[in-house]
Amino acid sequence: MSTSIPDSHGDVAPGDELGSASISHAIRGYLVGLALATVLTCVSFYIATSTLVWPPSVPIALSVLALAQMGVHLVFFLHITSGPDSVNNVMALAFGLLIVMLLVIGSLWIMTNLDHNVMPMGRLMQMQR
Amino acid sequence: MSAGTHAYPGGVAGSGRAVMAGHAAALTEEPEHGPSKRIVVAYGFWIFLISDIILFSALFATYAVLTDATAGGPTGRDLFELPTVAVETGCLLLSTVFCGLAGIGAQARRNGLYYGAMAATFVLGATFVAIELHEFASMIHLGAGPGRSAFLSAFFALIGCHGLHVTAGLLWLLTMMAQVYAKGYRADIQRRLLCFALFWHTLDIIWVALFSLVYLVGVAPR
Q1: pLDDT tens digits, one per residue of A6-18
Q2: How many beta-carbon pairs under 8 angstroms link A with B?
Q3: Which of helix, strand or coil describes residue A55?
């Protein structure tokens, strides 16, 4: 098989890896991903159960670690990379992430606002008495 | 293969011609122009998976909004057991790696690697589902079922939806083992295997968000 990256017409299917010379080379990619993901998972579990990180910032730290691990999975398992052959796959993913962010951040933002502005039911009933 | 310039793990790109003869020719015919069918099929499935991620993000947003709506009932801190979650996480992470190895085995047409890795993927995935079902059963036994509070409704919807996806994936996995056994490593079967691998890896990515932001944030010190 040729290991050269095609010079023209260079698209690659999501999940396929370009330029893997051999089986052992391809397996090594998965093992590197496994090692990185394991380290990130262990760090996540550790900071959630210890007081190493200032408690109010723990959710942020866990979010960052989760994003990093998703990146590891994307690159080493799904082979969605920043290379020119993968542009279509990355663009689809980027659009998906835009919608995900709008949904999650938008929901939290609006609902927190409503929470602040709407009087709790108990207090409302007390005022009507 | 007009687009035979593509290299796949295991290195059999372009060598599928021999098996294309016969009744499978219509299924595996490559277009004269444009991207290969493998790219088109996988890209379409990738779009579907992104819409699936959006589905999960809607359930996740619901959960995030309702985390504190416990109606005086148990909170995540009372219910979540981190050792169980750690085992579940390990099972799914290892199964996703074995799934990748199975893909390499299929590309290289190595029966031992393919069937062995697929079997390992299945066992680990089934263990994950079994542990999750046990977790759900013990929560319901404690009176913390999905009807107890808005928080628990959202929790069961989110985690249960992921569990249903994994269960569907297990059925798909068995189907793919049977298809390779019955039909061999034909190009159309290879495309289905690629889609299955994408599905399985994506489920693990979603689990990363779930174990970090549902379980770990749920029990983390404040």
Answers
A1: 444 567 888 887 7
A2: 183
A3: helix
Verify whether the Cβ–Cβ distance B216 to A78 is below 8 Å.
no
> What residues does each domain of chain A span?
19-79, 82-129
Select from B6, B64, B104 the Cβ nearest to the Cβ of A12: B6
DSSP B23: G
Q: Which residues are CB-contacts of A115 (< 8 A; sequence separation ≥ 6)?
A: none
Q: Using an 8 Å Cβ cutoff, are B67 and B217 in contact?
A: no
Chain centroid to CA B78: how far? 29
Compare CB distances from B89 to A17, A41, A99 and report the shortest one's residue: A41
Say whether residue A127 is in contact with chain B using an 8 A CB cutoff: no
Tokens, residue B219: 């029990």
A16: closest chain B residue by CA? B8
ipTM of the predicted assembly exceeds 0.85 = no
Question: What stretches of chain B show up as alpha helix (H) in DSSP?
Answer: 17-20, 25-28, 37-66, 76-79, 82-107, 111-141, 150-183, 187-210, 217-219
Other beta carbons within 10 angstroms of residue B34's beta carbon come to 13
